[in-house]
Amino acid sequence: QVQLDESGGGLVQAGGSLRLSCAASGNIFRFDVMAWYRQAPGKERELVALTTGGGVSKYDDSVKGRFTISRDNAKNTVYLQMDSLQPEDTAVYFCNLHRYTTDFWGKGTLVTVSS
Question: Rounded to an integer, what distance in angstroms lies between the CA atom of residue 56 and that of residue 12?
Fold first, then answer.
């Protein structure tokens, strides 16, 4: 089992930045896909960004050029740098680890962007 613990959420004004961190209780392996999802009030959970062990990163169109996902396997941690935040980025952000056919989830961290 892997436990994921997100941190770094909070309240920020539009145009500001936040950096989310996700620490895994166990080892992150090269073949694990790490991702950040978010869920806004009244909406379904959506993929924000993912990164593979091979260094491939993908982003939802809504965050391209503003968010950056990165991982540090030695620290068993994945990050999401969020710049130029907008009110529509307000959501609970969840860390996800996909290993083979299993998904592990964190409990989420709330990001609120005020206009």
Answer: 29
Q: Could you report the per-residue pLDDT of 41-64, keeping only the tens digit for each?
A: 999 999 999 999 888 999 999 999
What secondary structure letter does DSSP report for 43? S
Exposed / middle / buried, residue 45 (Cβ in 10 Å: 0-12, 13-18, 19+)? middle
Q: First-to-last CA distance in the chain?
A: 40
Q: Which residues pair with 44 in a beta bridge?
A: none
Residues in the chain: 115
| Largest distance between two CA atoms of the chain | 41
Opening angle at CA 62, ends 95 and 3, nearest 5:
0
